[in-house]
Amino acid sequence: MDNNTLPDPVDVDPMIEWRRHLRLNLLRTLTKVPGYTSPETVLADVARRHGFAASGAVVREELGWLGNVGLIVVNPVPNWHLVVMLTDAGEDVAEGRARVDGVARGQP
């Protein structure tokens, strides 16, 4: 398949696409909060309001993935939740200026 051809819809795994879009949603949400920083619980609530039926565990898993690829910094707060901060690379992906495999493409 060349780069201009869309994959056959039969070959697209809906869960992989769902996760790619959830990751983009989390990044975009962080671009809109003060200091580009938020508790994981707020990110999970916003994702659910945007139509993602994601449990807190799933959101935490995706935040870990985003942290592993350098798009966010994840800071655990003892006896509480994670606090997440967007990196410059994460902002570029959220705004569509850069692409990372595993994250849906943002629009510039």
Radius of gyration equals 14 Å
What structural class is derived from the secondary structure elements?
A: alpha+beta
Which sequence of strands runs across the widest sheet? 1-3-2
The total count of helices amounts to 4
Describe the global form: globular
Explain what you see.
The chain has helices spanning 14-31, 40-49, 56-68, 88-94, and strands spanning 37-39, 72-76, 82-86. With 108 residues, the protein is of the alpha+beta class. Strands 1-3-2 form a 3-stranded antiparallel β-sheet. The two termini are 25 Å apart.
Write a concise synopsis of the structure shown.
With about 110 residues, the protein is α+β, with helices and mostly antiparallel strands. It has helices spanning about 15-30, 40-50, 55-70, 90-95; strands spanning about 35-40, 70-75, 80-85.
Please give the structural blueprint.
Elements: H1 14-31, E1 37-39, H2 40-49, H3 56-68, E2 72-76, E3 82-86, H4 88-94
Antiparallel strand pairs: 1-3, 2-3
Helix pairs in contact: 1-2, 1-3, 1-4, 2-3
Key words describing this protein structure:
three-stranded antiparallel sheet, 4 helices, 108 residues, single chain, 44% helix, alpha+beta, globular
